[in-house]
Amino acid sequence: MSGYPNDEITNVGHHLSVSNGEWNQQTIYDARNVLLTQHSVDVSQQTPEQRSGKIVKPPIYPNHILHPEIIPSLDEVPAELIKRRHKRFNDPSNIDSFEIEMPLAIASSLQDELERAVQHRAAQDRNHDQTSIPESADSANNLFQGVFEKESYPTIETIEIDEPLESTSRQNLPRASIYDKSSLREAFQRIKIAGDFDDMSHIEDLEDAVGPLLRAMVIREKYMIFSLQSFPPTVAKFLTKTLEQEDQSRRASSTVRANTEPKLRTNSGGTSGQIPPKHTIPSIPTRTIPPQVSPNQKLPIVENDPHPFHPPVIKRDEAFNIPLLEAADVCVKAEKGIYRLHIPDDAKGWVQVDYPVVDRNQFIDDYTLLSAMITDGPLKSFCYRRLQYLKSRYELHCLLNEVKEWAAIKSTPHRDFYNVRKVDTHIHAASSMNQKHLLRFMKKKMKTSGDMHVYKTKDGKLMTLKEVFDELKITAYDLSVDMLGVHADRNTFQRFDRFNAKYNPLGQSALREIFIKTDNYIDGVFFADLLKEVMSDLEDSKYQHAELRLSIYGRSIDEWDKLANWCVRNTMYSANVGWMVQIPRLYDVYRANGITKNFQEFLTNLFKPLFEATIDPSLHPDLFRFMHHLTGFDSVDDETKPEKPIITADMPHPEDWNMKDNPPYVYYLFYMYANILTLNQLRRARGLNTYQFRPHCGEAGAVTHLVTAYMVAENISHGLLLRKSPVLQYLFYLCQIGIAMSPLSNNSLFINYNRNPMLEYFERGLCVSLSTDDPMQFHFTKEPLMEEYSIAAQVWKLSSVDMCELARNSVLMSGFSHEVKMYWLGPEYQESGVAGNDIRRTNVPAIRIAYRYEALCEELRLLGNAYKSRQDRKEKDRLLHQMEKKSTSVANIEHAVLNNGKHESTSNLPKPISSTINGNSGNKINMSRNPTTNVKGAAFHKQAKDNLQSILDNFNAIIALIRVDDPQLNPIKDQLPRILTNTTDDFEIRVRAYNMVRAFESLLKLVSDLKDQAVLYDFRAINDAVKAQRQRFKNQQSDLDTKLISLRDRLALELVKFEDEYANKSSFKIPKE
């Protein structure tokens, strides 16, 4: 499965279509790879372009991302939602008429991938002299080839166990290898739903759902690519393949962003000039190949070393010894709350750099559309059924393959759950220790640093640590965890205010400032020492890692410098720890206290120092170094606060938001995302690391918070409210958006443990991981992450395979460097499916990875098939509409035939045909070009007259045979002999109808001959129209037969009644005429 932070849009060596080739060559790379390699590679090895700040050639984005409005099928989605907003149910006839091609066989590309992965692993086991088998261009292009192929299936719907297909090119691998394909084939039993899938009427609401779902996926792809965050390559290829044909057909009608070449220059005298030639621009691959292996090299043989790649070793004392870059000749200007990059131009002064930007109005349109989707009835029903199907499918998979999965991990030497890498992707630094750890630390400091001045009161008085506790009348002996009062209990349930108060030891904010703050009188020395003990515990465990969140409040412009100085001064580095910054949404508090004047000042305090440190590191040297170890941003606060849950175009811009009300959640996230986008573009241009946006979302509050996060966040924390929105949950699954869940935290605050949806998300295939959130409030042991896993395993009966999969997800979601992930997960971890998994490092069997990948591909294929069928149906409707306009002659024929008794003269019959042949007055075809053409034209003319005359004659005869209501005849006298001879009449009617069909077939043959002679202006339209008329007459014949049979039966009953009446009477007199 894919869809994780460092997954790229395309894979190296994959050949895509010509229309997207340039985009794939210039695809966005994750600059975090560049950042963290600077620890092992001297900064002086950077290219001159990176050091000088020149922006490399901007990537060419897919047209459906830049201009989704040019694809009508996606642009029509808002109108479709409005049209069916009040529709309670669908017309079954619409479902029955929905045609789709749905082959469910395993794509050959997937089978090839399994073979390549198995062969590659076996080759590594044998230390054989061969490299990994590259993926062929055809396989890459046809990943979703099932969308465009037709296959026949049995008409009886059954559930079958489908074994992987044999490949004719499979190599003979040793059976002893745990990666042997034959072993995998014997172990992995797949679930396949077989049946007649020529139409998709059995999948309700599929036609209504496919358009909105594809539009939503394109929206997320756009926002992720623009901000240099990750988007699953499997899904990106699916969207490109599905929308490619329609996109290319309209590419000429759209104007793609001008391919201008932005340039930066340094202040040391370098000129901007032209962008260097293409061969001088550094090529950053989408995945890093270990330096020991190249396409033309043999795999090195390393004795007793199962890990051919090792990350750079960084000593703590050298972690912040990073040389500063030269200043770049660029400036940033805040425009309506969003910082824009500007570069000097000799003619125009400062001009804006041409990089992808997100307009607020466009964001509002996308947000409004997604908000409408999550309330659409048919879409909700479809997504809920697909999620239930995925859950049931997983349960069947476990029943069939659980034993084999256990066998696979048991046969893996050395590796088990305890020694696989696992990352706590959601943990706050201020509460990263458990309550007992904090208690011991406070007692230790009271004994060793009691006479140290640690606190300054509001009146300016300095107090030692001993004096602080003396004022509270507490000694070190008296302290206990119960007295600390930092642990959550039943009283914090649904009370976020009480939970926030738990951050104050003994209920005293002064103790919080002394022990767990970075900016205090002692410059955060106690907090640094406390975190170093936490990091030491993680290093002792070796396989546990954490991404600690530090706070930036946005109250002043120097907050970033203070935090960076604290980190550098105290050498806050550990190989087991990554740093994130959380931004509380507390503008209303600052505005009420007069700290900030408007929301723009809040944004300036947050982002201006970051831009300055990136442009000119000498202005903020410590901040520049700290940013090398920063992985992302978070947005935190109580989501249950009342707010206006939507953003509208008439909302004030940040410089005009000077009221005391707090902006809504979506307002915060949009401006944070927009500025992170600009920052990432700038840092990528300078060859530096970029950042993820990973907010708290979906813990409580409105479901629309998740809509915003779906658009702009790489992954989220909590996500509990996804259980209330099947549409968003299904979209999170399709896009494989990471969700860091904390069941113990949720159990104390918002939802009981047994009701937590984490297990349901995991079974359905969402990318979830376990995290601790706040060990000080919710955990008891020294290893809170292991405590989280152990409780989940006990409550939900998770297997070792399940826990290892959760651990692997946590690594993929994390912001650790690409090189580190290569060591933890394997050099090919960015590949999709089995090829990206190394069981020797993850302890996740290939069976489980293959199942997840195939399930995702099947869902994507389902949408692709439905989309193709829908587009084909629309195209057929369009062509039929055109045919109806052009086939006036056929309409005249139908009118003449259906006119009872009103016959046109034979001489007038060929005129419609002649009109059809000639076409419009402006497009007449010259029939007298040569004698041969004239002769053939005359023959066609005569044959058409004969056929039409035959049709009319037979039709009149049929009418005459069934006319039983002549007013001049006595009804009983006229019907009696016909009843007695109805068999003969019925036979004659059938013969006449058969003659009419023969005449129509002759006309169709005539049309075919006319096409060969090229005498029709639009022979295809005429031919299709004639076929349609033929079908109509067949239908009319069937209706006529039904009416005749009904009439016969009714007259027979009348005859029986008449006979009974005649028998009961002594005489029967026929009325005189």
TrEMBL record:
Pathway listed:
Purine metabolism; IMP biosynthesis via salvage pathway; IMP from AMP: step 1/1
Keyword Iron found: no
GO CC, sorted alphabetically, is:
cytosol; mediator complex
Q: What EC numbers are recorded for this enzyme? A: 3.5.4.6
Q: Where in the cell is it found?
A: Nucleus
Q: Which residues form the signal peptide?
A: none
Q: Where is the composition biased (Low complexity)?
A: 280-290
CDD domains membership = AMPD
Q: What class of enzyme is it?
A: hydrolase
Chain intervals with Polar residues compositional bias = 906-924
Give the top-rank taxon of the lineage listed in the UniProt record for this protein.
Eukaryota
Could you tell me where the Basic and acidic residues compositional bias lies? 118-129
PANTHER family assigned to the protein according to its UniProt record, in alphabetical order: AMP DEAMINASE
Name listed for the protein in its UniProt record: AMP deaminase 2
